[in-house]
Amino acid sequence: MTNIVFNRERKRQQLDRAAKTFARSDFLYNESASRIAGQFDDIIKKRFDKALELGSRNNFLSKILIKNKITQEVIRTSHSSGFLENNNIQVNEELLPFKDESFDLIVSNLALHWVNDLPGCLVQIRRILKKGGFFCANLFGSRTLVELRNAFLIAEEEKGISPRISPFIEVKDGAALLQRAKFDEPVSVSEEIFVKYQKLDDLMKDLRNMGETNALERLNNKYVGRDFFNRVEKIYKEKFSDASGNLDATFELITISGWKK
User: Fold this and answer.
1) How far apart are CA 211 and CA 83, in angstroms?
2) Which residues have a Cβ under 8 Å from the Cβ of 244 and sit 6 or more positions away?
3) What is the pLDDT of residues 38-75, one digit of tens each?
4) Is 208 helix (H, G, I), strand (E, B) or coil?
5) E-strand stretches of the chain
6) 112 near 137, Cβ under 8 Å?
7) pTM greater than 0.70 (yes/no)
8) pLDDT score recorded for residue 108
9) By three-state DSSP, how is residue 61 classified?
10) Residues of the chain with pLDDT under 50
11) Which of 61, 195, 208, 209 has its CA 20 to 30 A from that of 83?
12) How far apart are CA 157 and CA 175, in angstroms?
């Protein structure tokens, strides 16, 4: 039985709300999409007839794939109805409704780290991939928001620790998960993006706009008040800021990829 870590309904609701403001904070998503697409020029150097993008939040990645003639057609899915447009269809990434061997290429940009059964999801992805097809996805890795995580931990030492930031995979896990799903030539690599924020509220606003706020199944819903977040921000500035007082925020991108031969 799958261990339920994330509340998928809560995540869908978060994405529904984020759809209205996503364009204000889409820089990480677009940068990640550019890095996925860049692999096809630098490493893969192959073209594909029909592609599927899982968990799309805008059409940035799809546009690059088509513009660069990496594929002729992209079917885009979203877990949220708020992001549905053009050829998008609403799909829960944990239950893929497509027939076996339907796509030559499957990509996913910052969506699969919210899946409870990632090994099972990868098995499904391989099932709907044609022979000779390629899969590539970016997920947030374990060093994502390491500064915020530590600031929360220090601030809560007196009250007891509560889960406030979702767990992410380690880069070493990526290739092992792909091998388990029987992908050929599995690869898992890590890159970090560093972002500066003037204040904690700016970081939290970006996370809400991106739909990347906490979706753990077990949340501490006890109200902590503004004083608690003021303490978090104070700790953050003391331990994780630059000489100008700007807050450092790390986002780790883990790229996993593999073939179906």
Assistant:
1) 11
2) none
3) 999 878 889 999 999 999 999 999 999 999 999 999 99
4) helix
5) 48-54, 71-78, 89-90, 103-109, 129-140, 184-197, 247-260
6) yes
7) yes
8) 98
9) helix
10) 1
11) 195
12) 35
